Amino acid sequence: MITNSFGTRDTLLVDDSAYHIYRLDQIKTSHRLPFSLKVLLENLLRNEDGRLVTREQIQALADWKPQASQQHEIQFTPSRVLMQDFTGVPCVVDLVAMRDAIIALGGDPQRINPLVPSELVIDHSVIADVFGQANAFTANAELEFQRNVERYQLLRWGQQAFDNFKVVPPGTGICHQVNLEYLSRVVFTREGPDGMVAYPDTLVGTDSHTPMVNGLGVLGWGVGGIEAEAAMLGQPMSMLIPQVVGLKLTGEFPPGTTATDLVLTVAELLRKTGVVGKFVEFYGPGVANIPLANRATLGNMSPEYGSTCAIFPIDDETLTYMRLTGRSEHEIRLVAAYAKEQGLWHDPNNEPEYSQTVELDLGSLVPSIAGPKRPQDRISVDVAPDTVRALLAGESVIASDTMTIIPDSTAIKAEDLYDCGVDHNWPHRPVGITLVDGTQTQLDNGHVVLAAITSCTNTSNPLVMIGAGLLAKRAVEKGLSRKPWVKTSLAPGSRVVTDYYERAGLTAYLDKLGFNLVGYGCTTCIGNSGPLIPEVATAVDEHNLNVSGVLSGNRNFEGRIHPQTQMNFLASPMLVVAYALVGTMHTNLLKDSLGTGSDGKPVYLRDIWPSIREIQDVIDECVQADMFTNGYADVFAGDENWRSLKIPDGSAFVWDAGSTYVRQPPYFDGVGREPVAITDVKGARLLAKLGDSVTTDHISPAGAIAIDSPAGKYLSDHGIDQKGFNSYGSRRGNHEVMIRGTFANIRLRNQLAPGTEGGFTRDFTQQGGPVSSIYDASVNYIKAGTPLVILAGKEYGSGSSRDWAAKGTALLGVRAVIAESYERIHRSNLIGMGVLPLQYNDGENAESLGLTGEEVFDISGLAGNEMPPHEVPVCATDEQGNATRFVAKVRIDTPVEADYYRHGGILPYMLRQLLDNE
């Protein structure tokens, strides 16, 4: 029951339609709030019920103090939920299992149903197995369907069994681009008790790059799958009112720079500023010079600089993009009228209050790449060769994870390279190879073996995509070709991209350079890069070559892109094409020749680089609204493969006991109507001792499944040959595979097992604690009834919003994590799975306390409490009986998180809530 205690309900008339709205100007202080907080304020006003959303929450937001480090708790109710299939399949599996559980407890299975619009886009399953040939897309699509038919049957069943749940079938596009081009409403409307209600479009997504839609003025961010499930079931999200950092944009892009250069510069700047857990908002006179596609690029990469979101306010550019993408004129007029009426329209002369302001002159941008293993490590293109040589010469430095070669928050300059203490006599190791077509060539350290135009970050942006097509055209006309050892691929974010390539006549030139369409999906950016050219792969392994990948993506963490590329660099699509032409990171693209043209003369990048005017002319002529309206006219129908899938009837899914993709999960095993009491953690052993910046990519299973890994052995034991292993992401619906792949990243360094790399630990159930796989040790600890603990450094769990990083941790038997600091989503997900996140007091860590990891840990102060305390005593006792005692902070930050922990996780909590409300 909405209480409307501030009297904000009113009516807005647009054309001949009346909409109920909740006026922000009735709150006297609303004018001073940043755009994003105005959206949150409206959300509270509209959902005030006196129980979950209270007058006190609204007043707290109205009284927001910009510099306050701790804000009040509020309950945010997103308008909708967006999922991709890697993270969405576990959501559907959990909802199906929840239906089974509610039936077992005597409840109604129809209580388990999304209550808000929930849309899933299948975009993470295509792998670039086939490339560089005309049938690559068809071949990869067939392989995708063969591998994933069991998962797709579950999703197809969910599409017809659940209300408010829609699935965009495979081969359509990347969820963030589909969201931007089609799913987003900007201003949402729904039928209320007294007529239509209009309000800002908001969402949470099961992919950390959900903020891409912030470029459209839509507030949304990435959450773990378990948080998304609660939102789908109508549970408001508990959050603290955030600080908001204002990034003022001035000036204009210099010639030769792109949106990618801007976003890499912003990632570097804001990592240095420190925006983890904060909102970022763009404002100022330079906003008008940022096309919508570039705004989306900036929003997309907000996880790379650590912010919750990175939003642009609504303005004329928003309306232009809506018109371009085929939205109706009434929708566009509604957005304009609503935004202006509610004070949500961008006014460059009115600066809201911000917690902190940062300024960036667009004129200071330079061509940039980022790497070799973090997106915030920006490198100016003109010093990239020297940087790579320094990296190659200092491989041992990189391996020690000290990252002394690349300063954390500073672009590398040529004059700084020789201050790194690195011998620049980098190891030449030229290896002769003969390719399958008889071509003889050489491969060396620093060569580029992957060049991929992929990922929503850039493939949604016609400015850089058309730019790449024009650059390819001129390269071909000059007589250049890709180097034969480079695997090239093109994986756009929607079919609109290939439509405008065709209309512009650019497809043939990209094909000529090997950038044939391989699929519509994330591919290389999430590790679905497929195998390298076989002869190249063999040479890399046999000679231990340090080779590189270059991609137009947003992530390049260790082990993510491809297991054989130790260095991976983020670059614009245009530079991806250029690196494919030279085939090495040793070429200075701004000074050196790219190759010899058909006229015998050297060709330089400046000779083939298109101007902004040339790019815009092609966009104006070839990117039209009918492409979007036609392309999305029947977006949920799918092809014949999708429509012909055999699916069970009924409100409960029929689990296939023989499936290695989808299995009934154990989260509700033994769950009763009432939660059990919280207990202390006694006699725990350490599963892993980890350093700083351990990402969810290090924790969560991702990428290829090795045949000799615990997961590979499981699949082999179930009759699956290696060709059928697929990827961890595609098997997220099978907890048996995922448990075995948790903490199994090939670049994980567990300090408890020094000298190892990968998913190894020591098993203290055995005499002397021998080295073991993390999974095998976990099995032994669980059999022995021994709880487990993890020690970690700073920024634990940064990276993608992977719920399996928390699910796998919990299923391995981990009861608590003790870290120096956490990334927001992973900390929340740990609580959602019943794992206790603890944090060292300032100035303390495992090293300062002298913890080796061989101790037995006791965590007290939990038992007997209805809710967990704010801090707990920890005692670590070594083999000689010496005890190290310290106090750790309990990082359960809100009352709702405390409820989740008390119930053993968010899933049992939601089940009991639904049972109680019947």
Give me the count of strands.
34
- What does the radius of gyration come to? 27 Å
Enumerate the strands of the largest sheet in spatial order, edge to edge or round the barrel.
26-29-30-31-34-33-32
Q: What best-fitting shape do the alpha-carbon axes yield?
A: globular
Structure explained in plain terms:
It is a single chain. The chain has 918 residues and is of the alpha/beta class. Among the domains are: 64 residues, no CATH class; 256 residues, Aconitase, domain 3, CATH 3.30.499.10; 181 residues, Aconitase, domain 4 (Alpha-Beta Barrel). It has 31 helices and 34 strands. The strands form eleven sheets. It has a seven-stranded mixed β-barrel with strand order 26-29-30-31-34-33-32. Strands 6-5-4-9-10 form a five-stranded parallel beta sheet, sandwiched between helices. The chain is globular, with a radius of gyration of 27 Å. It starts with 8 loop residues before the first strand and ends with a helix. About 3% of the residues have low confidence. Pathway: Carbohydrate metabolism; tricarboxylic acid cycle; isocitrate from oxaloacetate: step 2/2. Catalyzes the isomerization of citrate to isocitrate via cis-aconitate. Keywords: 4Fe-4S, Iron, Iron-sulfur, Lyase, Metal-binding.
